[in-house]
């Protein structure tokens, strides 16, 4: 790693925070990493991994200063500790999946030159550091905001852990986009799980035994931690509701076409979806 970021403090020893610590340690073994993690089990796991020089149980214990503080906790926690992080680090970067609350808080604290809103599009349906992986960010998109231009040193760090920087216009655009490709997809996955479980309980107790890869792929996100996702979805509720309304429109079209045995319309819907998926796959950043 370039010498400008020798000391890094990570607030949050969950999946993203611990994975980032592992990734930085692998890419930059001389960097000094310290973490804040109030959960004793998570802290114990961090200690086992051996990548953090010191693990604090709460921010008040921190007296040192850092080149970078990484906020890797639920967005409400990150907002609450933004001022603390800014007092202890030259740069403060968050990795939350929503940006508007963080950017609003940073604006109110006059941190435009210090705060770096970001969002790695990476994760697993696992809570805590048990699933942490130094390769979690490799070849994954790492979002930055054009109106909060990240310092070159931060971009180089993100590239060093294997991620691909990508820029969106602002916090509003970011939150609307992730409502589609992340938050809304999460609800879609959970809804499929709930619908199948209703059928299992009411009609077919053997459904888990006959479920194939498609079922397990689409319902994978149902294993995600509920409390974290409830806070995230509520924080981005307006955008997620708009996505769900669009989703319901297409579900209704399929339902109507099937009810009418309208093969032509069904084929049109299926083919339109196939072509759209191919276009997304061929041109991910178009």
UniProtKB/TrEMBL annotation:
InterPro entries hit by this protein: 6-PGluconate_DH-like_C_sf, NAD(P)-bd_dom_sf, PDH_C, PDH_N, Preph/Arog_dehydrog, Prephen_DH
PROSITE patterns per UniProt: PDH_ADH (PS51176)
Keyword Transferase: no
GO molecular function: NAD+ binding; prephenate dehydrogenase (NAD+) activity; prephenate dehydrogenase (NADP+) activity
The keyword Oxidoreductase is assigned to this record: yes
UniProt KW keywords: Oxidoreductase
Pathway stated in the Swiss-Prot or TrEMBL entry: Amino-acid biosynthesis
A Pfam family the protein falls into: PDH_N
SUPFAM superfamilies, per the entry: 6-phosphogluconate dehydrogenase C-terminal domain-like (SSF48179), NAD(P)-binding Rossmann-fold domains (SSF51735)
Gene Ontology terms: biological process: tyrosine biosynthetic process
Assigned protein family: Belongs to the prephenate/arogenate dehydrogenase family.
Protein name from the UniProt record: Prephenate dehydrogenase/arogenate dehydrogenase family protein
Organism: Alicyclobacillus acidoterrestris (strain ATCC 49025 / DSM 3922 / CIP 106132 / NCIMB 13137 / GD3B)
């Amino acid at each position: 790693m370039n010498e400008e970021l020798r000391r890094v403090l990570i607030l949050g020893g969950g999946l993203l925070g611990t994975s980032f610590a592992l990734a930085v340690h692998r890419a930059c073994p001389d960097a000094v990493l310290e973490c804040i993690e109030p959960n004793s089990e998570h802290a114990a796991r961090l200690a086992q991994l051996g990548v953090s020089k010191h693990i604090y149980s709460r921010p008040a214990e921190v007296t040192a200063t850092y080149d970078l503080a990484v906020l890797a906790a639920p967005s409400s926690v990150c907002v609450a500790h933004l001022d603390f992080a800014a007092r202890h680090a030259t740069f403060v970067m968050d990795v939350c999946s929503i940006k508007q609350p963080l950017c609003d808080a940073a604006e109110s604290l006059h941190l435009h030159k210090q705060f770096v809103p970001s969002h790695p599009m990476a994760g697993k349906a696992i809570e805590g550091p048990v699933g942490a992986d130094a390769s979690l960010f490799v070849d994954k998109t790492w979002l930055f905001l054009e109106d909060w231009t990240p310092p070159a040193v931060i971009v180089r760090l993100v590239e060093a852990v294997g991620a691909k920087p990508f820029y969106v216009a602002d916090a509003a655009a970011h939150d609307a986009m992730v409502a589609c490709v992340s938050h809304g997809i999460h609800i879609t996955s959970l809804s499929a799980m709930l619908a199948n479980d209703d059928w299992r309980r009411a009609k077919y107790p053997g459904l888990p035994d006959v479920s194939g890869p498609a079922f397990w792929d689409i319902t994978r996100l149902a294993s995600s931690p509920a409390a974290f996702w409830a806070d995230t979805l509520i924080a981005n509720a307006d955008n997620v509701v708009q996505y769900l309304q669009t989703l319901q429109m297409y579900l209704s079209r399929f339902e109507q076409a099937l009810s009418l045995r309208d093969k032509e319309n069904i084929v049109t819907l299926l083919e339109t979806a196939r072509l759209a998926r191919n276009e997304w796959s061929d041109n991910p950043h178009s």
